[in-house]
Amino acid sequence: MISFESKLLIAVTFAVLLNGSLYAQDTTASAPIAFTLYASEMGKELNETQTEMAGRKITLLLDRYGYVASQDAHNFGIFPKFAVYEETQMEGLSKMLVVKGELSLVAKQVSNGLVVASCAQTVTGSGATREAALTNAISNLPTSGPQYQSFFKSVQQKVVTYYQRNCAIIIADANNKSTQLQQHALALQLLLQVPREAGECYTKAQQQLQPVFLAFQKDRCARMVQAATAESAALKYQNALSILALVDPGSPCRAEALALIQSIAPKVEARYRERLDFMLKAYSDEKELEKLRIEAYKEIAKAYYGKSDTILQALIVK
């Protein structure tokens, strides 16, 4: 059984392999605000396939407005509900059923059930059968509009207020998970969830990232070096380089990681030379080191929120 932190490492590694990005555009790292999507709350009107279809629509909707729909547990959740309020049988060359329904979205604080905001969207669908009409209605659901704009504006205001009011508790919880419980990945998740819009709380969370990240590295760097060594032995030097980009120069594996980087340097394709030089500079230049860490934070955030859908099985770290 692969642990949660190991799955995170795999996802992070694959994210870096995919995008190859190591050049920070800003000096801070954060994740989009994420909501747990409770698609099972959709109601009994829809079958399993239609519920999944509606869930994908809602996921697209959140993504369009800069948020993330997740199956993992988060502080806030989206509770959708679909209800049919009118059915009309149309006569003609062939019988056609027209259904009118409403999809409502309710954002709640999961811990206490407090409603943050809500909105509703009417939709119409038609088909030869009720099932076909409902499927057509779900396919007609819009993923943008003024009602959604107002909904997410209200949601963001409430979420930001939550983090501002509970900042001390959140920071303390992250520190406890890292220092007392040795749950460094969960601590990183808590810190990365604090949105940029939370102002001072966001700044405090950013300040806590480095010590927690280094503790995470202490537990995981040897496994990352091992995975990079295996990739190098398989002559997959770019893959090895991508993994080594996640090994912090301040970790206990500094010497091993640097030696491996230097050993594969002559074998790396020319188009990766700039990236390689950047990594080597991070071992002696504090500014470059900070850029490297920020990119690692960002990859961890992406991994948490499902941006890396495929796991590279060869890099499973047990």
Question: How does this model look, in words?
Answer:
The chain is of the alpha/beta class and about 325 residues long. The chain has 2 domains: about 5-30 and about 180-315, no CATH class; about 35-145, Double Stranded RNA Binding Domain, CATH 3.30.160. Helices cover about 55% and strands about 15% of the residues. It is built from 11 helices and 5 strands, in the order H-E-H-E-E-E-E-H-H-H-H-H-H-H-H-H. A 5-stranded mixed β-sheet has the order 2-1-3-4-5. Helix 2 (about 50-65) links the parallel strand 1 and strand 2 (about 70). Helix 1 crosses helix 11 and helix 5 packs parallel to helix 7 (about 200-235). The longest helix is centred in the last third of the chain and has 34 residues, at about 200-235. Mean pLDDT is about 85; it is low at about 10-25 and about 305-318.
Write the layout of secondary structure elements.
Blueprint: H1 4-19, E1 34-37, H2 48-64, E2 68-70, E3 76-90, E4 96-109, E5 114-127, H3 130-139, H4 146-165, H5 167-179, H6 184-193, H7 200-233, H8 237-244, H9 254-264, H10 273-281, H11 286-304
Parallel strand pairs: 1-2, 1-3
Antiparallel strand pairs: 3-4, 4-5
Helix pairs in contact: 1-11, 2-3, 5-6, 5-7, 6-7, 6-11, 7-8, 7-9, 8-9
